[in-house]
Fold these 2 entries.
Entry 1:
Amino acid sequence: MDFARKYVPARRCVYTRLYVNDEYYGLYLAVEHIDNTFIETHFGDYKHGNIYKAEMLATLSYFGPDPELYYGFYELKNNEAINDWSDLIELTRTLTFTPLEELPTKIEPILDVKSVLYTLALLDLFVSLDSYIGNARNYYLYRNGNTGKFTMLLWDANLAFGTFWIMMPRNIIDPAKYFVFPPDTLQPIRLEFVPGGNLSLPSPPPAMNKIAKENPSALFNLALIKKLLAVDSYRKIYLRALARMLREGFDAETLKARIQELASLIRHHAESDPHLLTPISMFELSLNETMSFVARRANYLKAQLNQFADKTDLKINELMVVNRGIKADNYGDYDPWVEIYNLGPGLVKTRGIMVKGRSIIDSRLFLTDDPSVPNKWELPQRSIDAGDFLVLWLDGEPFEGDDHAPFTLNPAGGSLYLYTNDLSGYVLIDNVSYSGLEADLSFGRYPDGEGNWLKLKDGPTPGEPNLFVDPVPTGLVINEFMARNRRTLRGPDGTYPDWIELYNSGDTPVDLSGMYLTDNLKRPKRFRFPDGVVLGPGEFLVIWADSSLDQTGIHTGFALKGDGEELGLFARDGQTLIDSVVFGKQHPDVSYGRYPDGSPNWDYLIQPTPGKPNVKVTNLGQSSLWSITLLLGVAVALCLPFFVRRKYEGGGRSGSSGQTPKA
Ligand SMILES: [Ca+2]
Ligand SMILES: [Ca+2]
Ligand SMILES: [Ca+2]
């Protein structure tokens, strides 16, 4: 879980001394529960989409249209009163029946594919077979009520490191040499356990016999992994995830240090455990076996992943046209350079024999600034491992070495193309166009190899991962809100929900996608802005603070407390506070806002202006405003509400609710 949390939402766990009536009972692992609180912490899902636990043979194959067919295989852990299983049935139907070429368009709206692939890769990496990839159980499915997408959540890992022998394919002698490829061979259950076989399952699900008779393949078909890994682009994500995990800590040295660290933390608590299940000598033995397993596993997988390596895994990743003082070549020249990145999953040689069908190709790589001459410069013989970078000089000085191109980059702008050769001729792998780059400013992808091309203002990184700090927008503020909307502004469903107005006082558009709004500063992720919400300079945006489902407009899912609470706007990292306001008692149809717009001065606004510049009414001649103002004066005098506004300019403020204990 500790390792997994870098990639997917995973449960926190901590070693615990358990006392019963003040008497030490033993060393336990306390593990975080997967429930609505877990979901809110990680997904901010106020709508609380369904959470299912996979109980047995939860293959995600389609069992049929009747929810009762799924009972006992899966268990719905929340929303039991509604008991609507149609989302799960739709997922299994899509996985089972969609032709491969249509799968991405059909599955992506209902499944968080990347997250699922990372979860499956983690199970594979740790050879954790008491899970979906083994016996198709001991995992959770959660459907995000905001996005409509399912994701898979890890349950436990007590049978990781290849210790669940019953699910190990029979031809595998060393569990470190397990691999889900080819996934067609995966089998979630041994035939003898199926009804009519030699052994019977303890407490089989009610529909077990019916499915075994009418639709037996559904019990064997691990639809999720088989279908996803059959899609080329998804298989790449999966393999690259494994390669990344090998680079980012799943290696003998790193895990040995971590294992020893944890062992010394618990060793003497285990020694004094009065209810230890095995002799303490087993403790040391299993540590050694685990460390040896990791070393064998990393070596084995590395070799496997190299077999999937391909020249098309290479990307043009960064370039510098006007290099005044960033990096000098072997002749001391500050010349233009380009960086090539290997996305993985394996080691790519720039030159080498490639077998394609019956043909053998002497495969090369080429860089050119002119697509009509794809082979302008053949790259030198190099090996680039997954996740590694190769820096080449585009200085028009080939006599300086084999990593110097015979052409140079045009300071005014131009294009660069990376080609390889195939039976059919030259094949374009990647290309980029650039223009108007200032001196010592590089242009690159972020994240490496996959992201969009950006001017990397945080500094050039030849031979290193590209840097780009997601800017925290300046000038984006919570500008006005109404916590007691009685008749001021009608919502899209005809009711009068609370509302919040955001204002962009800056001079550039702000993309709100993925930012968060909350009424609890300790839980920043209560509401996540959907993708594609952009607020132009000087623009206002009204957000409904209600939980009405399936309406037009943006709805936060939380209402504002008329007696006062807090409101916070957080950056995409879910930690950096962009703006907040803490407010006291509010009054019907009177808003609370900044005047003038975006200024630090908050005040009651008796003429609310949702979506428009805030105004302060000073003409009290209108009788209707008189009465409100008088009421307001009394209320202010009585309550003396207290308002605080805090603003952290790009500073790191860490959420206090999601801290992770070391375990
Ligand atoms: Ca040079
Ligand atoms: Ca770089
Ligand atoms: Ca306004």
Note: The pocket of calcium ion (ligand 1) is lined by residues 329, 331, 333, 335, 393, 395, 397, 400 (CB under 6 Å).
Entry 2:
Amino acid sequence: MTAAAPIAAPTLPEVRRERGQREVFCGLTGIVWLHRKMPDAFFLVVGSRTCAHLLQSAAGVMIFAEPRFATAIIEERDLAGMADLDAELDRVVTRLLDRRPEIRTLFLVGSCPSEVIKLDLSRAARRLGETRRQVRVLSYSGSGIETTFTEGEDACLAALVPLARQGATTDLLIVGALPDIVEDQFARLFRELGVAVRFFPGRSATDLPSVGQGTRFLLTQPFLNDTARALEARGAHRIAAAFPFGAEGTTAWAHAAAVAFGVDEMHFRQVVAPYRERAKRALERHRERLTGKTIFFLPDSQLEVPLARFLATELGMVPVEVCTPYLHTRHLAEELALLPAGTPITEGQHVDDQLDRVRAARPDLTVCGLGLANPLEAEGLTTKWAIELVFTPIHGFDQAGDLAELFARPLRRRDVLKV
Ligand code: SF4
């Protein structure tokens, strides 16, 4: 009997790690898309005027228009010199819930000011939940000290996991706050494949699937590290897959689930072929503008690695460097394996050093945060705001062309201006 050959560990590319000044939104930003996804949830930002300003101007949300946007803050003057912060928080929450009896789930969202950090929001959430039994009160941190902007979604969804009923669902769980239109498309695709699906979160913060031993889930976003861990702690199993960006990415993502659920290979191909072909045709329209163009990702949304893979393998772009705030290698193994060999990858940020490398490389396109885009444009570089990638539906076959368009548009504008 011969000894079994050792299983080769996947070879991961070399990763540069940088620490220094960061230029990234904080986790509060996630409220902008999460409150749309869960209209029965209310996000009470326990923060300062700076937090209000972020949500109001940078993210374009009218936080004082509560009935429409379901967001509120505790202002600085409430916090300054307060003898009993818990009592003040109770007072604000009581006033809010009396005025808004339709709220079923209340998220207390922590932020940076030292007064807020002193508050134990999880204890406050438990206390408030006990006195207001018709409302589920949860907490998470959106603080810029602890989170970058997509980590806000991760923290929020991880806070929801304990509320899911214990017990295994035989359905596939699709995890991540997707726009409704994308959710509908994925539901249709899996229905045709013969796989029943549930979404986490659903269209209501109270509509949660059961989770337990045997639950299998697919991530739709690479930044849901804590959420995945919380689901795994309940016994759920993550189906390892590339992320559903582009024709090939979405095919690989759906295929991983199809294999896990025993879908016949021929049936899979028959179902997926028309979607995949349509997506490839949509990408073809952008190929000429994008192929051979160099792209530099500064760290921002945590979508950098899958998007670099999409642009390189499906559209022939050349990633000069891919920087990401955090590199969850476990979740990104499939993506990293598909990146062109030798693509430089950086985890973390030292903004000055990274900007020096951007200036030296002078890429055709730099994907970065809002704060860096204007200075780089002033230096004659073409930029793409990373935040748009989070606010725009980009997942799945039907969005492949729109996703390519997001990168083609600034290059088209640059070419027009040159002329
Ligand atoms: S949470 Fe912190 S980083 Fe975010 S807006 Fe408030 S003060 Fe600024």
Note: DSSP finds 18 helices and 14 strands in the chain.
